[in-house]
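[Automated response] Your request has been received and processed.

Submitted sequence:
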Amino acid sequence: MKIFSIWFLSFCLLGCSAGLAFGDGAEVEYYAILVDGKKIGHVVQTRAVADGVVTTTEDMTLTMSRGAVSITVTTLEKSIETVGGRPIGFEVEQNISGMGQKTRGTVVDGQAEVVIEAMGTTKKQTIAWPEGAVMAEGLRLLQMEQGMQEGTTYQATVFSPSIMAGMKATVEVGGIAEVDLFGRVLKLTKVQVEMGMPTGTMTTTSYVNSAFRAMKTQVPTMGLNMEIVACDREFAMSDNDEVDFLKKMLVDSPAELKDVRSKKWAQYTLSPLNGAKLAIAGDDSQTVKAGPGGKVLVEVSPAAAAAAVAFPYAGTDAAVLAAMQPTRYLESDHEKVVELARAAVGDCKDAAEAVRKIESFVAGYISTKDLSVGYASAAEVAVSRQGDCTEHAVLAAAMCRAVGIPARVAFGLVYVEEFVGRKNVFGGHAWSQAYVGDKWVGLDATRAPGGYGVGHILLATGNGDPADFFGMVNALGYFKIDKAVLK
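Generated structure:
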C-alpha cells in the first residue's frame, strides 16, 4: 500500500506556481515548503532575460518520510518565452529516489514537439498546445495588466510543463490582510486561484505584495495545511524536518471489517470534513449516491469480467481506444513491457483469463516490494522489478495495453487490518482496471490473485500521469467513514 504524499505534493506545488509571480526587477526568489508548520523542502525561482527571451526556472526539493523510509524529490522546471509572454519551449528534470526523467518541449504552430529521456531511452511525441495557454512570463504579464484592485476577476489557461497539460485558472483578487511570515507581519493582498484539471479542481490562496510577489501561498492538499512561504536563502536551504505522511493519510474504519475478500457487496457512508464538498468517482464496480447532510453513500460491487471475449479490442469507443495507447507512464510499446506481457499471457485467447494472468504475473515479477520508490513508470518497473502499489498498477496496466486490452490506473483507498501501528484503517492505494466485454474490471496485483474487492474505494482513474492525481486532492483527507456495511 502506498500513501501518495510525495507524488501529490510535488505536482500540486508545481501546479500552483501561478501564485509565485515575480515583481519587476526580481531575479531570484526563495521559498520554504511547509506542512503543518514543519519545513519539508524549498523552491528557488529564477527569472533571466537575454536576447528577447525570458527563462523562468523553478527548482524544487522536498523530503518526506513514509514509516522508516525517507524519500527526496527534486524537480527543475523551465518555462521559455518571449518578452511578450509567447511560449517558446519548456524543460523538466525530475528525480524521485534515484529514478530520473528529462523532458524537453518546443512550441511551434499550436503544437509542442516533446522529447522524453528516461531509463536510457529517448522518446518523441507531439501534443496539442492548449489554445491561448501561457506559462510563467505570460501569466506574470497578465497579472500586471489586471492589477490588484479588490474584486478583480479574470481567467487564463496555464500550461504546466511538469504535467504537460493546460489548467484553466480563475483568479479572484480579494482584500488586504495582515499575514505572519515567520514573525514578520505584513499587509498583503489576498488572491485566490482556482485551477481546473480534467479530473478535478484545486483552489490556492496567495498573499501578494505590491510588487506582485506572492509572499505566502496556501495549497489545500489531502486535508493537510501546506504552504509555500517566501523567506531568505539561509532558511530555504536549511535542513528539513521529519514528517511521517503514512500516518497522516490513513482513514479510520468505523469497525473491524472481517473477511473482506470473501464479501460481494459493501456500502460506505462518507461524511465531509471542514465543510468540504465531496466528489467521489463511480465506475462499473462503484456507485455513488448523495446522502443527508452532505454525506455520500458509496456502494462497491466488483464487476465480473465477461467470458469468451477476444483481444485485442476491436470496438469503436473513443475513450476505450485511448486506453490502449502508450503514455508517459504506461509505456506499453516499450520492448521490456511487451516482452513481459507476452510471457504473462502466453497463448491465451480469452481477455478475462489474460488480465488475471497479467495480475498474477506482476505480483510475482516485482521482487522487491517496499516503499523506497517514490513513483516509477511501467518501463522503469519492468527493469527494476521494485516498488509498491503504484508500481504494480502501472506495470499491470501497461502490460494489458501491450497485448491489446484497454487498461487504466485507479487511485483510492483500500482497507487493511493493520498498518504502521494502526488497526482497521483505509490507506491510499493504486490498482489497475482492464476493459473486458463492456465493463471496467478491477485488478490489484499487490493482492493477486483476484486482488480487487469490496475493500477498495475508488477516487480517480487515469493513465498514471501526474494530472490524474488531482481527482484525489479534493477527496482524500477531506472525509471520514461513518459506517460500513458488508455482505
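Summary generated for your ticket: Residues 260-486 form a domain with the C8orf32 fold fold (CATH 3.10.620.30). The two ends are 24 Å apart (CA to CA).
If you did not submit this request, please reply to this message.
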